[in-house]
Amino acid sequence: MKIKPLGHALSIFLTMTFTLCIAWGLVTPASLHMHAAWESLLPGFSFISVPGFFLGLIESYLYGWYIALGFVPLYNYFNRGNVRSG
Description:
Blueprint: H1 3-27, H2 35-41, H3 50-79
Helix pairs in contact: 1-3
C-alpha cells in the first residue's frame, strides 16, 4: 500500500466530512450540531467563523495524513508475509 494516495484520499474524505458537518450545523437546530465535537478535536476551531472554518479544513486535511503515515507502514509490515506470487 502506498502512503501518498491513501494520505490524499483520507485527507479529502475528512475535509468533505468536516464541511458537511459544518453545513449541517448551519441548517439544523442547535440540539443537532456537532460543533462541540469539532472544537474538541480541532485545536483553535470555533463554530461560525470564517478563520475557524479554514483552520478546521487544514487540520482535517492534516489528520488524514497523520492516519496515513501511521497506518501504511503498519499495514505493509504486517502484510509482507501474506503476498503470493502469481
